[in-house]
Records
---
Amino acid sequence: MDDKAPVDGVQTEDDVLPWDDAVDETAPQDRIPHDLLDPRRRPPARDDVRPERWRTVARGLGELLVTGGVVLLLFVVYELWVTDLLNQHTQTTLTQQLQQEWKSAPQLPPASTAHGAVAVGKAFAILHIPRLGADYQRVVVEGTGQDQLTQGPGHYVGTAFPGEQGNLALAGHRVGKGSPFLELDKLRPGDPIVVETAQSWFVYRVLGDPRTGNFGTDPSGIPGQQIVPPTDLAVISPRPNAAADAAPSGAYLTLTTCHPRYSAHQRLIIHAKLEGAGIRKADQPQGPAALRAG
């Protein structure tokens, strides 16, 4: 007889297995909680809840970052490419409207600089830069607010008009909104910049020495190219880089855009000076030779 056998049906301490105290096997099965019968259905221990909570938080954060990245990517695509496509349509429409207006404009004296009152947002000239392509042309509108620069290069209100003494100052986006001044840094001393109006062509030349490529050799002391902070408004003064109330000393053209690309930290500036008098369109309907100098 086994000396460890239960006596009179009574279970001794030695007969109790380590897990027997979790479930009373002598109890009727219909009274034992199912969660205890099936370990897989038991509620998780407190130590198991916390890691699961952190996994949920991490998963939610990851999804949020992915969504934010997609939104940012779509914004960049819109700013860099979609706005360029929209601007192409805008420029085409402005060109057609302006050419139609010019056909019905009254005749003015040869190479006139008369422009009358120009409302903000109204197109009044076409800018040609042969260095940037034989077909490079952009309609210029009055004003430099965002609404105007979305359409194309904008004319700083209060600065000179084409052919006038003073400083014809134009601003344009470097990236996006048509990117009219994307490659402005390619301009070299002596390069022509042609401004077309209703009845005239005006040819400006980038300041500097065409032979050496040095922008700083003009006797006026005005450089053909410079990089300045956005707060430097002297570049659009009647005499570039002089006081705002300084008297004009010639007929200049100034182009301004952001620098470097994809940044508004600084401004890239191009200065040019009017070459001779304006040219009547009636005399040269296809434009001056400078248009084909690129």
Note: The chain has one domain: 79-113+120-292.
---
Amino acid sequence: MQAIVFDMDGVLIDSEPLHRRVEQELFDSYGLRVAAMEHLGYLGMSSYATFLGVATAHPREWAAAGLSVDFAVDEERRRYMGALRRQGIPFVSGSVELVRAASAAGWRVAVASSAPEEQISLVLSTAGLSAVISCVISGDDVTNGKPHPEIFLTAAACLDVSPAECWVVEDSSNGVQAALSAGMRCVGFTDRSDFSDASAPSQVSAATTVATSMKEVAAAIDPTLAVP
């Protein structure tokens, strides 16, 4: 294996609770009744795919709200970025160290996230990781979002490696499915406090292997990588 491709939300940063809260507040403000388990089904998807799914599942409420998918996406991104800047970026313990260790050990490293480029850039620059990431693929860079494998195949092409030479670190069922469909090995990462009803581990059960800390992620991919 020559390359590691990291998802961002839920892997590098513990942002899923904030994402879910912002989305739920947006749903509520427009009278959209989206249940928690329905919301979980959109985990790992782009904002566009999420709101398109909600619009399709709740056509009457969506029409009554007078929303467009593009407006909802822009509003969610605006609210999320504001919250992220106010509260600070919640990095997953050991994630920054793992990225640095992998790069220093000669692994080619990419980030492939459904998030927009603006959010990814903010996270990487804040962590001081911009110089060690060889490729960044955002949700805006692909036509088909997760669980379609396009984002990971695009990352492999950017890194100039074959899919079989890539490990992916993912926290959602949609992301795991995308990685496996791309022909890559996948570590399913489950260390999240949200969805305490045990649905979080089941999100990644199909992965090649499952890890609950960045130390376990490192051990699965390359035991020589030192992560505190």
Note: The chain has eleven helices and six strands.
---
Amino acid sequence: MQHNPIALESGLVAQLARYGEAVNKDAQAIKWAIRGIDIIRETKQNFTLPVLAEKIVPQMVLEGRYAEALDLALETGTVLIGINKHRQDGGETLNFDFNPETFLGEKPNKLWQQAEQHAAVMALIPIAFHLSTVLVNQPTVAYEQGTAVAAICRQIGVTSVEQDWTTVARLFENIYSNKASFSDLVNLGNTFVSKGENAFLDVLWTISYLGASLQSDVKLENALIVLLYIMRRMHLSLKPSSPTYQRIALPFLSTYWITKFEKMRFRFRSPQMIEEKLTEANTFFADQQAQAIFKTVSFGLGVAIPSEFSSWLQISH
């Protein structure tokens, strides 16, 4: 059996990117991932794209390259679902010029929907968290970037098999212009949950709840609860080791509560201790940072955390 040495190199590079992430060498992991993408573009051997895109999409988001991040996520979703279908059919992915669309069939169908759902999780979640971090200190910039992302989503919706891209666009427009209310966005998020279970609806729920925490009428006690729901979901679905969780979701949570504390210090009991604990939380491992922040905020506000979160708050790996 003969293998394309350059194609196999992309697989090796993917493993190196994973290793770099495992030993907390983010810059090195991203470097290898970018090299792997270049190899894929040269050889069209894209079976390693899902592993590499997981590293690169969050980096694109952090750099404000939202259109590129969404394009890569959509491509990755297609490749991932195509590979899964091909393997179910007993195929050998490594030995040919892999065209995932061949296995997905004609639009619209469930496979294409799954591909877009995967893309939404990969790109829209980090985009929403990153824009939320921007909004905390630079609301004008967040509005401009949120409007740009909304326009991109509307373009995707033109050829999409998931009509909810238009809903995503409206969410970004309303959330980052601060035109919505806390209760409106929470209620909207709950309607997505009531429609059933799929990854796209989960993304819409996450964006709605995240947006609710950012509105001007939000009470700190309510923000604590909605962010608990979001971060527990992110912790369990993305895993603490993922770049989106470590590099985008956790920094948002820390920035959010440090900023709230600085602006409303009088609302927190034992403020000196709360300040120290919020700073200290950033030194914890990723699987414990969010929990430490929530416990600190809960104590500071004098708000009891619902019992359903008790086991998650004690998680340690």
Note: DSSP finds 15 helices and no strands in the chain.
---
Amino acid sequence: MKNSRPFMNRMYFIDKHLRTRQYPNCKTLAQEYQVSEKTIQRDITYMREQLDAPIAYDNVRHGYYYTDVTFYLPMIAFTDQDTLSFIINQRILSQYQDTPIYNDIKHVIDKIMQFIPETNELGERANFLSFQTAPTAPVEYHKFELLQQAAHDERQVKLRYYAPSSDQETERIVNPYGIHQYYGAWYLIGYCLLRKDYRFFALNRILSVEVTETEFYKPDDFNIEKIISDSFHFIRDGQTQHVALKFSAYQARWIRERQWHRTQKITEFPDGSLRLDMDVQGLDDVKRWVLQYGDQVEVIAPVDLRETVINELRQMYQIYTGVMIIDDRVRE
């Protein structure tokens, strides 16, 4: 069985023996610690090359010693679980390789990981985890930095913004409160002076950013999580509505497994079907979510959502069949 005692513990063990001035060598250290001589040699090499430890070998006494006794190892102790956690964090971070935060966080993790050279075995243990990222929207790093700094300094920004829904560009003056990542895209959350309300701006749709000298004051009770908590997924439209959906017995098996919204209530029926009720904003998000379940779900409320889904289904029917449905009548 491989010795799984933490690498940092071995370094402190070697350090303690070097300070005794008894000139330990790889053989004596390996025997006492119950590892191979090659392991001890690798540890000493690492201490020399990575930590600048002033370790020398005395050919007369056939052992190692410190040439500078004022040297001390970094006071960081890692367990194997700590090391495994950092390896997993590296893999989680890799999902965000094309995002503005990647390099800064990777730099910090790499600094810590330099104190953990033996990661092969633990790396194999981490292989049981894998991650799949959502499709990402590219963001220009300098825009991200400008908005991040403006939010920190509480300075208004002037944005030129493209809205795909209207296919138009507009100029906005915004009080930037924070940046939020959702499903592969980054959004600026702020107060829009044009709309007189909170708005979410996709960073990849911001065509230009200008930080102004005008200061603003973010409300003390502002909380991004609170702002988006009423949204079904992420979209806010300023109007919270009661949504009721009935799922078939087949689809209900999966629906009851998850928490879809903090306000949700599930009513079970004898035939295995269920009704999902929730109070949310962003009916466009709800519509897209409902449509993926096809004939396994029925919109009960609100009426506007039900009619929107019906119209979508009519248009889909026409696309696939070439037949138009008008007022429930089929027209070739």
Note: The CA atoms of residues 67 and 170 lie 68 Å apart.
